[in-house]
Amino acid sequence: MSKIFSGRYTAYTDKDFVLFLIGMRINQLWRVDQWWPVAKAMPPMLRTLVQHPEKGFLGGYSTRSWPTIILVQYWRSLDDLLRFAHSPGEPHKAAWQRFYQQSNSLAVGIWHETYVIQAGQYECIYGNMPRFGLGRVFAHVPATGSRHTARQRLRQN
Q1: Is 9 exposed, middle or buried (0-12, 13-18, 19+ CB in 10 A)?
Q2: Mean residue pLDDT across the chain
Q3: CATH 3.30.70.100 correct for 17-117
Q4: pLDDT tens track for 63-93
Q5: For the whole model, what pTM was predicted?
Q6: d(CA 5, CA 55)
Q7: What is the spatial order of strands in the sheet that 68-75 belongs to?
Q8: Residue 110 and residue 112: Cα distance in Å, rounded?
Q9: Range list for CATH 3.30.70.100 in the chain
């Protein structure tokens, strides 16, 4: 189990970064033949990113809101994310092409959202939590003094 940090913490970075949300939605549970190939395409991508931090992937986590699987990812830059997504040598491009070649089925859907966040244009708080979210990929600092309130944290960044 992860170490719990007692009290209030926030995350700090003075650099721009990218929040990338990506996921799939199982529309027809019984069509495993259609959605399973999409589901199993993600682990090789994540392994590549974890093994090669120079590609710009800072970290992330997955969660479910049935029937949707969501991956929250933090990236160093939009250029890094796009380079990974479009490079022929990376696992994403082939998976993306397979999906669109076989997307005549409504059994599975895919989606993503990309947010480019400028330094100082984010705010977060973690109370009695392990390192999580931005607090896991950037400096994890106490939310005290000039970082006590959301407004102060936004000014601090």
Answers
A1: buried
A2: 92
A3: yes
A4: 999 999 999 999 999 999 999 999 888 888 8
A5: 0.91
A6: 30
A7: 57-65, 68-75, 17-26, 108-117
A8: 7
A9: 17-117
